[in-house]
Specification:
By secondary structure, this protein is of the alpha/beta class. It contains eleven helices and 13 strands. The chain folds into two domains: 99 residues, Aspartate Aminotransferase, domain 1, CATH 3.90.1150.10; 243 residues, Type I PLP-dependent aspartate aminotransferase-like (Major domain) (Aspartate Aminotransferase, domain 2). Helix 6 links the parallel strand 5 and strand 6. The chain is globular.
Length: 363
């Protein structure tokens, strides 16, 4: 296993918690400090620097996903993406959540009495049966389950959902930056993710991929004043035309610091390739799983692991989580399980430290 720790600040803990929050690269921190220093003296930056940074970040996202930059728009978070989709198809009242899903995909509809939401198990026959009842629905699915680490076969889902005349929207926050996504192979309608986890941060910035078939509709229904194609802000008398690419969803002031950091973190991930990241992460989570499996149950069998997340359950699970916390091992407690996540900044030194701590716990 290679080590990439030199790209990150030295940590004071054993960190297996990227499914909650990623750790930014050194270079992303440097760039933000330079930016803050600049605006503290000049109050603003040049438009050339502003727009070039945004478009460079967009290019890095498109590279990661193997898609066109015209399909990528920046958003605040995954919830903002769900709202964009909701606003774009007001005529569709039936929403299907394939698998339990994370609350961000179903709460916006469940609490709105104009909509009907059906949460169904991850069974293709059940999905096809449900789709057959309606003329058109939107199916939301998590690329990677936030708790179990289960990876969804998006290509198969796309075929089934599109054959039924419906729309697929993928929440990729627990996979993007850790597993390979190829949007030239998987013709999803929408795919979105926040940067805060596997994209190494920060919070408050993310992206949405919009299939070209939907771009005009989405922009028209979600446009803001910055959706127009400004070249300068010298005059607002004769307004420019609207941008009919995915950047048109950026209708208000952008999170420039977030975009700046995301650009640098994506440069790093793309430089080592997503294939290397995925291989590194799965190797690490398999080693952790092998260490844990003799003491309890895991949500992913070691031989079937396809993502960087697994959750662990044992009789003394609360005591185990408290023990890890006291020993400076950062993990998450979810649904009476301890969730582990292994990312590119982790290496064998983290595993060795964890091994010593694990052996001292009495299961």
């Amino acid at each position: 296993m290679k080590t990439y720790s030199n790209f990150f600040e030295e940590r004071q803990n054993v960190y297996f918690n990227s499914a909650s929050a990623g750790i930014p690269t050194k270079n992303s921190i440097i760039k933000v400090k330079e930016y803050l220093d600049s605006i503290s003296k000049n109050a603003d930056i040049t438009l050339d620097y502003y727009f070039s940074t945004i478009e460079e970040c967009r290019k890095e996202v498109a590279t990661l996903l193997n898609c066109s930059i015209t399909n990528i728009g920046f958003v605040q978070n995954t919830t903002a993406s769900v709202s964009l989709i909701k606003n774009s198809f007001p005529e569709i009242k039936k929403m299907i959540i394939f698998g339990k899903g994370f609350p961000c995909t179903f709460v916006p509809f469940e609490k709105d009495d104009r909509y009907s939401v059906e949460i169904i198990s991850k069974n293709l026959e059940n999905l096809d049966r449900e789709l057959s009842k309606y003329k058109k629905t939107i199916v939301f699915v998590d690329l990677v389950d936030y708790l179990t680490g289960e990876l969804t076969d998006i290509s198969t889902l796309c075929d089934l959902i599109h054959d039924r005349g419906s729309i697929i929207a993928v929440d990729a926050i627990q996979g993007c930056g850790s597993v390979k996504i190829d949007l030239k192979e998987s013709q999803v309608d929408f795919l979105f993710a926040g940067a805060s986890k596997w994209l190494l941060g920060p919070q408050g910035i993310g992206f949405i991929y919009i299939n070209r078939d939907h771009i005009e509709r989405v922009i028209k229904r979600n446009a803001g004043w910055l959706s127009l194609n400004y070249k300068s802000f010298d005059s607002f008398e004769n307004l420019p035309e609207i941008r009919f690419d995915a950047s048109g969803v950026e209708g208000g002031t952008r999170n420039f610091i977030g975009i700046l950091m995301m650009r640098e973190n994506l440069k790093f991930l793309n430089s080592i390739t997503i294939e290397e990241v995925q291989s590194h992460n799965i190797e690490g989570i398999k080693i952790l799983s092998e260490m844990l499996e003799e003491h309890g149950n895991l949500t992913q069998e070691k031989s079937l692991i396809k993502s960087s997340i697994t959750s662990f359950k044992t009789k003394k699970i609360k005591e185990f989580y408290s023990y890890l916390t006291k020993n400076n091992v950062k993990v998450s407690y979810r649904n009476d399980m301890v969730r582990f996540a292994f990312h590119i900044f982790n290496d064998l030194s983290d595993i060795d430290k964890f091994s010593v701590i694990l052996k001292k716990f009495s299961f």
